[in-house]
Task: inverse folding
């Protein structure tokens, strides 16, 4: 019979493979376009990966992982809504996306021999390490809060420069937490090592994009009374 730790490791690794695949997808498309792009599939993969990480956090009795993923899950759905792609997904998928996490969290509160809220609250992780992890996950989570608010203001799903900077800082802190945690969290380490590289690369791409000279746009001024038309050029 499989041990809980083995099941948790498998779920966590599958989740991180999915998380990494979405980053690779976003990275490849951005490199081709020479600017940062975020396809709809990025958010769809994020949603599935986040649900698996919720399960992983439960099995590991890790409040840092569980809390961050529950909030991230909601933000992923909202980004799909902003893109106008949420209603395009199969209804079965949308219903499952709402029902499964709620049912799983309710099961966690009730408790089982393998995972329970009471066991998590007993706090087997050293307080100092837990605080470090909480700070790292909070910063990591704030990237999506920032991105969410930024996208709401723009009326479309956008990943600005600040998102990648905060991602890089949060990922480094989570790596430190995963290393200091007992036992060491291999899943978090594998997921964030690759992420650090991609976040740094996206920052470089965005900085280059911002440094490019902005195109000049011709703006036609009102025609004078004598019938001729003059065009003035202004910098956007």
Result:
């Amino acid at each position: 019979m499989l041990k809980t730790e083995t099941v948790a490791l498998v779920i966590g690794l599958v989740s991180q493979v999915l998380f990494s695949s979405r980053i690779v997808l976003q990275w490849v498309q951005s490199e081709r376009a020479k600017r940062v792009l975020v396809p709809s599939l990025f958010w769809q993969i994020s949603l599935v990966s986040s649900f698996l990480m919720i399960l992983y956090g439960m099995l590991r009795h890790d409040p840092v992982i569980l809390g961050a993923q529950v909030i991230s899950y909601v933000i992923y759905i909202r980004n799909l809504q902003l893109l106008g792609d949420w209603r395009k997904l199969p209804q079965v998928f949308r219903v499952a996306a709402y029902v499964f996490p709620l049912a799983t969290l309710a099961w966690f509160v009730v408790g089982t021999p393998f995972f329970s809220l009471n066991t998590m609250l007993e706090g087997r992780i050293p307080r100092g390490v837990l605080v470090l992890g909480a700070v790292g996950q909070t910063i990591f989570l704030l990237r999506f809060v920032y991105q969410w608010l930024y996208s709401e203001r723009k009326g479309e799903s956008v990943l600005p420069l600040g998102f990648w900077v905060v991602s890089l800082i949060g990922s480094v802190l989570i790596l430190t937490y995963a290393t200091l945690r007992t036992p060491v969290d291999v899943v978090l380490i594998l997921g964030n090592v690759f992420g650090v590289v991609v976040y740094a690369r996206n920052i470089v791409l965005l900085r280059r994009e911002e440094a490019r000279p902005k195109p000049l746009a011709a703006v036609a001024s009102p025609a004078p009374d004598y019938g001729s038309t003059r065009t003035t050029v202004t910098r956007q």
Summary: The first helix runs from residue 4 to 33. The beta strands are 216-220, 231-235.
